[in-house]
């Protein structure tokens, strides 16, 4: 029998494609573009990404899985958008690492401290930020949104409300100002939402196992997103009349338009997830009865119960309300009567949101009282600036003593001046009352925004789930597993109040754990990836100004709930993207400077 050249090529391709990443590796023609832009190649002169491709082509599986080659990739995904053959290099490496752990070439924790872009390392969801920024710079918007949605389903939401810890870590900040990462994420998401061919992840083989999720907030919806992609039959039980949790009833529309939020939730529905609204576990169906019908349960009810002020009079007069109730009623379309003077107590984002909403509703006067200084305010600095710009007074070092009123209605607050004392056990300076400094603040409506906690009454008696002293469910911070097999918990109900992207990250990890649990696999193996940000600054980078977000004029905000941040246009987004230091390296490579 004669062996032809075509036969040899077929056999070669079979050997290549039989290995992880083999199909894409066969497209590599060794041009070296990936090595030219790889930040790790800059830091590790001995590393060349093509080494992995070469070993895959040669069929050297054993050598590859034990090789240092799979240790260096930083998973920044930049190479995916410069490769002429569109080889998804970092995806290949990810599969190889999983195989190396599974087949015993390395210990389960071997890849826990690998380096990547500091933006990705500091993002709770570990989004491939350098990758989607590169995609924007090249106009590959569809590829950019796929890259984001591999790690989280709410880029349009987080592109508006995230406090963007990624930007604080951005290497560009060492040169001048960080990249506007949050706004670029929003840009891609908005382009996708407006597209006739909106991205919808491919669903894997359908499974018969059913999963119940209690709470349709960011953690629960995210878990449902990934479980649906894995082929599970997912039902979410939500006691509110809308899905979204605090994204829907806690964040005002001028920060997060409802059509944007619902657009991203609709994607999850289109994956086959059933969301039962106005359905309260513990009332419409007991927690134990629900467990009988589902192989696994994920609890993600959030923190929708307000903390009490703990001062005399707060329960004695009409006009005293907590911020959760105040914002929820407004967001559900039933705002309270808005007249008179409204006073907000607190210094977080919920306090700022309450005040800015009240201003838009038309209260005669709005003021915030905070017992510490501005430097200690937990609200985002830009939110504080917006509140002041919109005419809201903030009185610092002021604490309430009691609610005053007459004829059953609140009329004001007795307050006391404070001074900052020594740091307490948490490291924060403790406010100390100034004796003899009492005074009265007139108020027709008092909104308390001093904290929130979870309502766990839906669990009923005898549930057996461990509850902490802070009234959170005790759940593993990596796997979301509780002390009861098959019951998982995550988001604010496990961590206490956090930002949206942290709840999203928790939901993604819960989905991984539930999938493994239902397959009978070890839910802990290889988990707890702890990315380390890599310092990187090319020589001779010219400083350029950070582009400003176009905003709704101040005069148009006074009585309107229209979105304040208007978003980047295409040309501006691309100009923002090319400030990324990795793209500076790419450009210098094209110009022959490196």
Can you describe this structure in just a few lines?
This protein is α/β, with parallel strands linked by helices and 594 residues long. Helix content is 36%, strand content 14%. The chain is globular and about 85 Å long.
Secondary structure elements and pairings:
Layout: H1 5-17, H2 22-25, H3 33-37, H4 39-43, H5 50-57, H6 61-65, H7 69-72, H8 89-102, E1 115-116, H9 118-122, H10 129-137, H11 141-149, H12 155-161, H13 165-169, H14 181-193, E2 210-214, H15 218-229, E3 233-237, H16 246-249, H17 258-270, E4 274-276, H18 287-293, E5 296-299, E6 305-306, E7 320-322, H19 323-331, E8 341-345, H20 349-361, E9 365-369, H21 381-389, E10 393-395, E11 398-406, E12 409-423, E13 429-433, E14 439-442, E15 445-448, E16 452-453, E17 487-489, H22 492-495, H23 500-519, E18 532-533, H24 570-577, H25 581-590
Parallel strand pairs: 1-18, 2-3, 2-5, 3-4, 5-17, 7-15, 8-9, 8-15, 9-10
Antiparallel strand pairs: 6-16, 11-12, 12-13, 12-14
Helix pairs in contact: 10-11, 10-14, 10-24, 11-14, 12-14, 14-24, 15-23, 19-20
Verbal overview:
The protein is α/β, with parallel strands linked by helices and 594 residues long. 36% of the residues lie in helices and 14% in strands. It contains 25 helices and 18 strands. Strands 4-3-2-5-17 form a five-stranded parallel sheet, with helices on both faces. Strands 7-15-8-9-10 form a five-stranded parallel sheet. Strands 11, 12, 13 and 14 form a four-stranded antiparallel sheet that branches. Helix 20 links the parallel strand 8 and strand 9 (365-369). Helix 10 crosses helix 24 (570-577). The longest helix has 20 residues, at 500-519. It is globular and about 85 Å long. The two termini are 52 Å apart. Mean pLDDT is 88; it is low at 1-15 and 588-594.
């Amino acid at each position: 029998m004669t062996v032809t050249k075509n036969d040899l090529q077929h056999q070669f391709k079979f050997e290549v494609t039989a290995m992880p990443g083999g199909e894409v590796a066969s497209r590599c023609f060794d041009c070296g573009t990936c090595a030219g832009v790889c930040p790790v190649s800059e830091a590790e002169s001995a590393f060349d990404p093509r080494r992995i491709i070469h070993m895959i082509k040669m069929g050297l599986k054993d050598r590859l899985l034990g090789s240092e080659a799979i240790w260096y990739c930083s998973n920044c995904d930049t190479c995916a958008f410069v490769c002429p053959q569109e080889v998804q290099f970092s995806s290949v490496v990810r599969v190889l690492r999983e195989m190396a752990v599974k087949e015993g070439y390395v210990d389960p924790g071997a890849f826990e401290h690998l380096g990547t872009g500091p933006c990705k390392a500091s993002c709770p969801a570990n989004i491939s930020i350098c990758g989607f920024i590169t995609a924007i710079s090249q106009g590959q918007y569809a590829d950019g949104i796929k890259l984001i949605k591999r790690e989280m389903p709410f880029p349009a939401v987080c592109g508006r409300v995230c406090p963007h810890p990624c930007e604080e870590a951005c290497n560009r900040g060492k040169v001048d100002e960080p990249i506007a990462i949050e706004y670029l994420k929003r840009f891609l998401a908005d382009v996708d939402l407006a597209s006739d061919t909106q991205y919808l992840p491919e669903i894997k083989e359908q499974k018969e196992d059913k999963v119940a999720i209690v709470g349709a907030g960011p953690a629960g919806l995210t878990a449902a997103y990934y479980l649906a992609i894995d082929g599970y039959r997912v039902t979410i039980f939500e006691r509110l009349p809308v899905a979204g949790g605090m994204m829907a009833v806690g964040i005002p529309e001028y920060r997060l338009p409802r059509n944007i939020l619902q657009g991203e939730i609709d994607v999850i529905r289109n994956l086959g997830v059933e969301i039962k609204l106005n359905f309260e576990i513990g009332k419409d169906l007991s927690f134990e009865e629900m467990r009988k019908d589902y192989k696994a349960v994920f609890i993600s009810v959030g923190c929708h119960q307000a903390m009490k002020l703990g001062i005399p009079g707060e329960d004695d007069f009409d006009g005293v309300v907590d911020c959760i109730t105040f914002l929820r009623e407004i967001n559900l379309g039933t705002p309270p009567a808005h007249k008179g003077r409204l006073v907000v107590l607190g210094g977080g984002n919920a306090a700022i949101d309450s005040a800015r909403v009240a201003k838009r509703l038309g209260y005669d006067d709005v003021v915030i009282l905070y017992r510490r200084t501005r430097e200690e305010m937990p609200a985002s600095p830009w939110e504080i600036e917006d509140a002041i710009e919109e005419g809201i007074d903030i009185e610092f070092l002021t604490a309430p003593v009691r609610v005053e009123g007459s004829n059953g209605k609140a009329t004001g607050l007795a307050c006391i001046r404070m001074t900052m004392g020594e740091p307490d056990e948490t490291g924060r300076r403790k406010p100390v009352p100034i004796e003899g400094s009492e005074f009265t603040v007139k108020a027709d409506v008092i909104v308390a925004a001093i904290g929130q906690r979870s309502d766990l009454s839906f669990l009923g008696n005898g549930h057996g789930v461990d509850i902490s002293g802070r009234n959170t469910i005790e759940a593993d911070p990596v796997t979301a597993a509780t002390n009861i097999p098959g019951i998982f918990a995550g988001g604010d109900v496990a961590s206490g109040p956090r930002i949206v992207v942290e709840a999203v990250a928790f939901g993604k990890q819960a989905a991984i754990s539930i999938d493994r649990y239902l397959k009978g696999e070890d839910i802990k193996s290889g988990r707890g990836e702890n990315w380390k940000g890599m310092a990187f600054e090319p020589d001779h980078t010219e400083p350029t100004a950070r582009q400003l977000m176009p905003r709704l004029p101040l005069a148009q905000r006074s009585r309107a709930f229209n979105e304040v941040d208007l978003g980047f246009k295409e040309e501006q987004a691309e100009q923002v993207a090319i400030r990324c230091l990795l793209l500076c390296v790419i450009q210098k490579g094209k110009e022959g400077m490196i």
